Amino acid sequence: MAASAAADDIADQLAFTSLPPDTQFRPFHLRQYGWFWLLEELLMAVPAIHSVFMPRPSDVLLASFPKCGTTWLKALAFATLNRAEHPPLLKYLEMAFGQPMGDSGADGVFAALPSPRVLATHLPCSLLPRRMTAEESGCRIVYICRDPKDAFVSSWFFAKKGAAAIARTLARADEDTDMQQQPPPPYTFEQWRSQEIRMRRAEGGQGPCWSPWLRHCIQGGVRAVLRWHMRQRPAVAPRAGLLGDEQEAAGEGALPPVRGDAPGPVSNVKKLAEFMGCAFSAEEEAAGVVQAIVELCSFRSLKNMEVNKSGSQGPAAHESFFRKGVVGDWSNHMTPTMAERLDKIVEDALQGSGFSF
Ligand code: A3P
């Protein structure tokens, strides 16, 4: 079945046509569901995940808004759980389940994986089945946050590079023939900025895929950690962790920042291991296993792996997930006024939460 026909079929089945469509971000076909603007192809995964995916209490779910360091976290978590093995780029739940006709065998693939499984998602936590997020029965969720200004700049570069390939693959034969030949979306930084700022306000309105970012972040990470903090859950049995920029404000037991250029990664990976239930032994620490994992998963190491130079994750080339990998690159692309404006939006949205970036 042609991609467009299959998509129409699914759209009819799931009554997507009743959801508000986006008109501004072609060639992406986005619809708004539960606040979030999602690619129709990925939106199809949501009912499939709800109906067939069976989480295990031992599962570790790595959740994030795109461009916040997911690839790095995936590598660290997988390498930690599997110690000496090489970190592959793990499949996202929604990509596996977002196939025409629902589960498309994805559940069988996941069911065959031995525990503990490391899974990844960009889906906002509010769109995941309750059996995954409920504290008593769900899996451990690690939500990674990043300075929004750096994530913003990163997403702009990705839109110009990686997203173009995705756009070409998803382009529908019946209406986007020209798109398949075209270069990346012709956004200027200014155009991107105005769209991004609007979507980051979490006020609704149309926005790029996965937006609004603030709502994603607040639901996915900050709230989980704050709720956990308020209930004073013991650090030994957390169900939600956060890798972000503010350990203190994020609450008891929250994970401290993991940054490529800071001395933090070793202690952060130790916390991550504890959180995932596979703490490093004293012997392992003495043997330098933690440092080895940090080194294995460093930007340079991952970027230079053959699989990341030539492989692809669906339509997106692995290499498009490795750009600069530094903190503060926003200052090379944003004026101080733009940065202040974005900071203010974020600050306002988080007011009273006790969390800040
Ligand atoms: P930049 O574009 O700022 O370089 P995601 O994996 O969520 O898509 O995020 C991609 C961002 O993480 C990119 O940021 C990428 O370069 C950076 N990144 C990928 N691997 C990394 C690593 N091992 N260490 C530090 N940053 C990394």
Automatic annotation (TrEMBL):
Its EC number is 2.8.2.-. Residues 57-162, 265-354 form the Sulfotransferase domain. Gene3D superfamilies: P-loop containing nucleotide triphosphate hydrolases. InterPro entries: P-loop_NTPase, Sulfotransferase_dom. GO terms for molecular function: sulfotransferase activity. Keywords: Transferase. The keyword Membrane does not apply. GO terms for cellular component: cytoplasm. One of its GO terms (biological process) is sulfation. Pfam families: Sulfotransfer_1. Belongs to the sulfotransferase 1 family. This is Sulfotransferase. It comes from Triticum aestivum (Wheat).
